[in-house]
Amino acid sequence: MPRMAPAEDFPKIVSVDDHVIEHRTVWLDRLPRQYHDVGPRTVQERGTMQFVGGVFSYQPSDDGELCDWWLYEDKRIPQTRLSAAVGFDRDEVKVTGITYEEMRRGCWDPRARLEDMDTNWTEAQMCFPSFPRFCGQTFMEADDKVLADLCVKAYNDWMVEEWCGDSGGRLVPLTITHLWDVELAAAEVRRNAARGVRAVCFSEIPPYLGLPSIHTDHWEPFFRACAETGTVINMHIGSSSKMPSTSADAPAAVGSTLTFGNAMSSLTDWLFSGWLERLPTLKLAYSEGQIGWIPYILERADNVWEENRAWGGVADIVPEPPSTYYYRQVYGCFFDDVYGLENIEKCGVDNICFETDYPHSDSTWPKSREVGEKLMGNLPTDVVRKLVRGNAIEMLGLDLAP
Fold first, then answer.
1. What is the pLDDT of residues 245-256, one digit of tens each?
2. Could you write out the DSSP letters of every residue in 77-146?
3. What is the CATH classification number for the domain harbouring 259?
4. Phi and psi (nearest 5°) for 385?
5. Residue 97 covered by a domain
6. Taking the model in full, what pTM does it have?
7. Residue 286 maps to a domain
8. Positive or negative CA dihedral for 108, 109, 111, 112?
9. pLDDT of 310
């Protein structure tokens, strides 16, 4: 089989997992004036923060680092260098605060982002939210749900019209939704799909947020709206507001190693939920979960389905081996996973997408092309093209050359 072409022919990247730092007035620009004192807004103050046992904690402190804080109802949420790490030396990427002035401008400015994408051999990218958290948990937790509804819609309007609007299709819209009200969630999917949006955020494990599991019919209107509009459900690590760890005092390195754990559990949920059988056009994507674990969990799920059908509780809703649904409807995402790529046939050459994770601490910017060449240089040219851009284009229905 032909191997990858020379470096200059490495495909332009279409990344399915990057992040945007919302600028200071995203919500002030869109909310009615009566909400300006309680809606999302920023202030600069000093504070301290830490990440231990899989839990991020922070508090204002006169002797802490100066950073920008989001204020919303009674919440105070700091901007962190981990979320805006590009441009800093690796040894300077710490659990500490950051101001907008210290950030690389591409974190929050779409024009500067496009320039940084050019630097990074990236044609297009899709960005997860920051202040709303990875699936909009911030607004789900709010007391005033009328304001929360307005905030969700304001974010989505900003995402579509301002962040992505003048990018010529290079910035791909990814919206949030109303986790606390499934009918509002379904309506918001349809509202955004009508203007070309094909991606929405969701939680890996809703019960971790105090929400019904996907093993109930609770989410049916939302799932059906996604299936009928071709809207991909994107589940980022951390979208359960709970990262895997082993103890309350485990160092951050333990949780960082185990980040794939919730994605693995979530995929197992979906494979045995029956939804992928009931809604065969529904698509799922697991962002930043890496891929090396996928072959084993598919093997194990198929074995359980086959050997434990008498008592497994899914014989009537999962008529085919679970791996069938994965290969038909699910995408995994990676930025650095040698083991997964060595097993790419079992991960699925049509199921895996590359990501650059700009501007987070794991980002491969500005060397994502070099990283990709090193990781995939021994793979056939057609497989590389699928992983780097073709699968993402197919997943999201993008108007780009495959």
1. 899 899 888 988
2. EE-BGGGG-TTS-GGG--S-B--TTTS-GGGT-HHHHHHHHHHTTEEEEEEE-STT-TTSHHHHT-S-HH
3. 3.20.20.140
4. -65, -35
5. no
6. 0.95
7. yes
8. negative
9. 87
